C-alpha cells in the first residue's frame, strides 16, 4: 500500500463531471473501471477523486444514499480481501475519510470477516505502526459477544509489543486497559483478564497482566480477599455471594487467583499450598478463613 497521500485538488475534473450527472457512487465506480483496476486501487489516479466524490454525494443527498456498509460491500465484491483490509487502513489518511474508514473496519471485523480477515487486519495495523490505543478505539465498539473485540486487541498488542520491543510493556498495556475501561473497577478488570486467560494463545499474557493488577491491590491498597470479593460482586451482591458461585464463573476464578496470589505474597509458598488445597476441595470459605487467620496473626 502506498503511504503517501497526494494532496487532492478542491474539485478534480472527474468529481465535477460526476456531480453534474448526479451519479450514484456505485455507478461511478463502474464507470471509472475501478473494480477492474490492475494493481492496487490506491495507485489508481481516479480512486482518490472517487472517494472525494462520495463525501460530496453524501453531503448533498444524505449518508443513507451510499452508507459505509455499501462502500465496504462494493470493495469486497470487486477487490481481493487482503487489498480491502489494507485499503481501509490507508483510507484513514485520506482527508475526510478517517471516521468512515474506522467505521468500515469495525463493520468488517464484526459482520464480514473470518479468522483470516482478523489476521489481515492486525497485519495492516502493524504495518502502519498503529498504536494499540487507536486499535482499541475501533474494536471497543464491537459487540461484547465472547469478548471478540478485546481478544483481537490483545492479539494486536502482542504483535505490536514484539515489533517495538521494550517501548511498550505489558504494564503499559494494563494501564491503558484500566484507563480505557474506567467504568470497571479493578476486580472487574481482573475478571475480564480471567476470561482472556481461557484463550490459549493469550493465556500467558493475560495471566501476567492479571498478576500485575492484583499485585497493586495486594501491596499498594492492602486489599484482603474478603474486601476484594466485595469488588468482584459489585454492584448487586455482597461479598459472601462469591463463596457459592459456580466454580467455572470467570469472577469466581479471578477471585480464586487473587486469593492464591495474596496468600503467596503474605504467607509464602506454605500458605499458598494450604489455601490451594482448600480450593481443590471446593471449599472457598476455608481458603478465605486460612488467609484471614494468617493476616490476623501476623
TrEMBL record:
Keywords attached to this entry: Secreted, Signal, Virulence
Pfam families on file: PexRD54_WY (PF22748), RXLR_WY (PF18634)
Keyword Signal belongs to the record: yes
Signal peptide: none
Entry GO terms, CC: extracellular region; host cell
Stretches assigned to the RXLR phytopathogen effector protein WY-domain domain: 57-105
Domain called RxLR effector PexRD54 WY: residue spans: 22-54
Cell compartments where the protein resides: Host cell; Secreted
Family statement drawn from the similarity comment of this UniProt entry: Belongs to the RxLR effector family.
Name of this chain's protein: RxLR effector protein
Amino acid at each position: 500500500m502506498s503511504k503517501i497521500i497526494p494532496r487532492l485538488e478542491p474539485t478534480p475534473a472527474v468529481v465535477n463531471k460526476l456531480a453534474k450527472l448526479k451519479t450514484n457512487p456505485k455507478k461511478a465506480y463502474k464507470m471509472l473501471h475501478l473494480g477492474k483496476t490492475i494493481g492496487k486501487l490506491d495507485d489508481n489516479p481516479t480512486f482518490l477523486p472517487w472517494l472525494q466524490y462520495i463525501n460530496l454525494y453524501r453531503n448533498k443527498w444524505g449518508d443513507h444514499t451510499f452508507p459505509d456498509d455499501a462502500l465496504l460491500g462494493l470493495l469486497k465484491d470487486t477487490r481481493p480481501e487482503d487489498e480491502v483490509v489494507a485499503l481501509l487502513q490507508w483510507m484513514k489518511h485520506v482527508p475526510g475519510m478517517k471516521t468512515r474508514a474506522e467505521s468500515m473496519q469495525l463493520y468488517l471485523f464484526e459482520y464480514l470477516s473470518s479468522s483470516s480477515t482478523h489476521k489481515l487486519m492486525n497485519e495492516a495495523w502493524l504495518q502502519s505502526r498503529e498504536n494499540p490505543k487507536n486499535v482499541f478505539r475501533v474494536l471497543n465498539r464491537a459487540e461484547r459477544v465472547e469478548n471478540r473485540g478485546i481478544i483481537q486487541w490483545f492479539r494486536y498488542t502482542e504483535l505490536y509489543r514484539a515489533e517495538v520491543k521494550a517501548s511498550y510493556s505489558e504494564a503499559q498495556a494494563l494501564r491503558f486497559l484500566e484507563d480505557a475501561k474506567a467504568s470497571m473497577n479493578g476486580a472487574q478488570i481482573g475478571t475480564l483478564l480471567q476470561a482472556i486467560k481461557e484463550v490459549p494463545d493469550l493465556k500467558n499474557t493475560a495471566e501476567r497482566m492479571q498478576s500485575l493488577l492484583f499485585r497493586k491491590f495486594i501491596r499498594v491498597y492492602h486489599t484482603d480477599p474478603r474486601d476484594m470479593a466485595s469488588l468482584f460482586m459489585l454492584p448487586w451482591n455482597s461479598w459472601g455471594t462469591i463463596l457459592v458461585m459456580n466454580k467455572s464463573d470467570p469472577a469466581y476464578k479471578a477471585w480464586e487467583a487473587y486469593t492464591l496470589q495474596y496468600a503467596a505474597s503474605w504467607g509464602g509458598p506454605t500458605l499458598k499450598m494450604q489455601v490451594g488445597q482448600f480450593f481443590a476441595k471446593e471449599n472457598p470459605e476455608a481458603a478465605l478463613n486460612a488467609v484471614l487467620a494468617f493476616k490476623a496473626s501476623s
